[in-house]
Amino acid sequence: MNEIPDNDTNRPDLNRAEPDDSSSESTSDSVAVDDGDSLAELNKQDQQGGSSSFDSKSFLSRLTRRPGIYQMYNSSGEILYVGKAKNLKNRVSSYFRSTGLNIKTQALVSRIADIQVTVTNSETEALLLEQNLIKTNRPPYNILLRDDKSYPYIFVSTEQQYPAVRFHRGAKRQKGRYFGPFPSSGAVRDSLAIMQKVFRIRQCEESFFKNRSRPCLQYQIKRCSGPCVGIPTPEAYQADIRHAMMFLEGKNNTIMDELAEQMDQASQALNFEDAAIYRDQISSLQQVQEQQHVSGQSGDADVIGCAQQSGAVCMHMLFVRGGRIIGSKVYHPKFSIEETPEELLAAFIAQWYLGSGREIPPLLITAAEATDREVLEAALSERSGRKVTLVHKVRSDKSGWQKLAQTNAEQNLQSHLASKQNIYNRYLALQDVLQLDTIPQRMECFDISHSSGEATVASCVVFDRNGPLKSDYRHFNIEGITGGDDYAAMHQALTRRYTRLKKGEGKLPDILLIDGGKGQVTQAVEVLAELQIDEVLIVGVAKGSDRKAGLETLIMGDSGAEVALRADSPALHLIQYIRDEAHRFAITGHRARRGKARRKSSLEGIPGVGPKRRRELLKHFGSVQSIETASIEEIGKVSTISRKIAEDIYATLHPDP
């Protein structure tokens, strides 16, 4: 098989996911390590000098089984990857087994010239050390996050007579209360705007506040009560501050109960102006509740959705504070080794919370169960100083948050994959891989879908330089072939499609992708040869032996040569994206056709049997099954059915064998 590299010769785009730590014990000989060995002695014992050819057998033969972290280096002394293990010997040995490694891990192992090990007292300690090293060294094969900024907070200067409520980011040096963290500055400013409107709390700086002789414009537009000139009493203003802080704590219902009571008291005292103010505050809070989807539950949680497709990953985080969603953020981390959502979630959570000073909520809700969940919980609990729980099986409102985060992750991933810049870069890589003179302008991909030969449908999806061109997508209902014959189905679909294009009913593509192996590619070559179309490049996309993404083989239609691309190749990611879209579109068409066929009555299509006679037959017999078991004489007893029509019905329902 020919190996063609893509145009990116730099180090791969990273990620963090290690081989399974729970695998069976390594068969390599090991040096026994007494429990009494000191960490310093073990760490000194396990250092391995770098060399261009790494001697894994010698290294593993004396590697400890204690927990710790390992750092992999290339021949230039640059760090490639940092990992943690509860059993260093088992974990590191798994990188050097002869079979079962995915392509990404093989790429990492091929670059290793040195491994250095640090033994720790526990796996939790190893996880914390691992994240510190990732943050400091940013190894290319670990998951990397670009957003290292601290979260914004809302600061209330409670030490003052007339406290201010302001935006805050950074160290918490001022005396007062801090509310947050919020997912973005926009979420903070939205909350500040609500409080300014509802509670009329000042947000000005101290220099501005202390030098006012008359109220500012905020007072004129009813966004501030004018504490700078002493219009509200300190007691009245403190009451508004207390309500504002209750709002930030998610206690909206309690606030509204208090305001309703104050409104009644003001009304009874004939103080209708104050009563109207309380009424407006209650109305505003009710509107806020509707807009922010306040749930019946309380508490703080981060909800993490994870979507993965065509070499890209999207993490969507929902931030729940005081029982309400206060915002969200989307991340597209670079990754290289992780494959499953469980591995990706574990790597993302570890770096997001342990590799930074971010505040950790007591509850993390994930789309799937993160790998090493217990270890993550222990490390997060140790870092936050309170118990932290990771869950993926949830009910009620929490289930709604989980579904919302996952839906957003999937939608954002699709948008990311379809972005013009992302698509263009992948087209450039494909041009280089296929050694084309120009960038492809148009590509088509075909796939076949059926259920054991039933309702066979072929799909054709079209991509141009901007991504999917859905207006040109086509379905082909396949007829007149042996059920399950994918070669014949592909031949028919291609013939129908390219006969029309040959007649000028559409544009010919630069590249024709076929989801399948050499048999399907042969059909494409034959069809285009019959139609005398020689300007289209045919490329088959054959799945690997275990049908995993990243193990596909390209089959060149002109020569039949097999080409393998690196798993992190942008060109391969583009081909996977188009292939997956063709597969999705084929399944959609097949399911629609199958559903329509199964809803169709066996009485339909019989000459002389229209809707009225079908109703009479069903009314007389009760079901189609009873009609199928009836004789010609019994069918003829229906008032609207003649002898001739009864014979036709019987013949249709009982075809000759």
From TrEMBL:
Residues 8-19 have a biased composition (Basic and acidic residues). Residues 1-57 are annotated as: Disordered. Residues 45-57 have a biased composition (Low complexity). CDD domains: GIY-YIG_UvrC_Cho. Pfam families: GIY-YIG, HHH_5, UVR, UvrC_RNaseH, UvrC_RNaseH_dom. SMART domains: GIYc, HhH1. Its main location: cytoplasm. InterPro entries: GIY-YIG_endonuc, GIY-YIG_endonuc_sf, GIY-YIG_UvrC_Cho, Hlx-hairpin-Hlx_DNA-bd_motif, RuvA_2-like, UVR_dom, UVR_dom_sf, UvrABC_protein_C. GO terms for molecular function: hydrolase activity. It is found in: Cytoplasm. Gene3D superfamilies: 5' to 3' exonuclease, C-terminal subdomain (1.10.150.20), GIY-YIG endonuclease (3.40.1440.10), UVR domain (4.10.860.10), UvrC, RNAse H endonuclease domain (3.30.420.340). Residues 65-143 form the GIY-YIG domain. Residues 303-528 form the UvrC family homology region profile domain. Keywords: Cytoplasm, DNA damage, DNA excision, DNA repair, Excision nuclease, Hydrolase, SOS response. Residues 253-288 form the UVR domain. PROSITE patterns: GIY_YIG (PS50164), UVR (PS50151), UVRC (PS50165). Belongs to the UvrC family. The UvrABC repair system catalyzes the recognition and processing of DNA lesions. UvrC both incises the 5' and 3' sides of the lesion. The N-terminal half is responsible for the 3' incision and the C-terminal half is responsible for the 5' incision. Interacts with UvrB in an incision complex. This is UvrABC system protein C. It comes from Amphritea pacifica. The gene is uvrC.
